[in-house]
Design brief:
Elements (H helix, E strand, L loop, with lengths): L2 H6 L15 H13 L3 E12 L4 E12 L3 E6 L5 E5 L4 E4 L5 E5 L2 H4 L2 H7 L5 H4 E5 L16 E7 L6 E8 L6 E8 L4 E11 L17 E4 L1
Parallel strand pairs: 6-12
Antiparallel strand pairs: 1-2, 1-11, 2-3, 3-4, 4-5, 5-6, 7-8, 8-9, 9-10, 10-11
Amino acid sequence: MTRTVFLFSVVFLLLPFHAFSADPGQIVSNLQQTYRTAESWRAEFVQSTFVELLGRNIDKQGEIIVKKPGKLRIDYKDKPGRQYLSDGKTLWVYVPGDTQVEVYRKISRLLAKEALTFMEGLGDIEKEFTVRLYPSPHTGEAMIQGKNLDLIELRPRNAASIIKNIVMGIDPKTHLVVETTIFNESGNVTHYIFKNIKLNADPADELFIFKKQKGVREIKG
């Protein structure tokens, strides 16, 4: 999986579908208003990725922290563990205990435009995506497990996008994204469940900058 695909999957059905309480436009409006007014958010997550080439799922757990403008931190708990840190300009990728850290100086060249939109507080979703209620006739199973969620499907307007479509499960009361499934053009499918979501926790800026220890060398990405 490329860094671009992975990170975008960072920053997003076997149960019966339910009747939606609002039209897709209203769902998106409520969703964007919730995240636009939040200066930061953090959550624990469970990630399950079906890797097409391997023909199997890879499961991981971790924590994500996002702070405007463009700051991101992801810590995977599973050994050997991996950290993704960005101050909005530079991205560091590091495995704790390793002797090298990957450094990407221009994050805008690494991430898809759609990913940057999400990192900035969901941006203008309808500018980057077409939005419809889920399911639609040409969408695969989204593996959404939560009941009574508003389900919407996002399809990139950019025909060259590496993302095929995204299905979001949104809590109709809090307007928070609690589940997301991302379908990549490669055939990989990544499902996220977000837990213990906290808005405006005001994480320190230092959390998004890699502190290089003695003996760790930088590898330019």
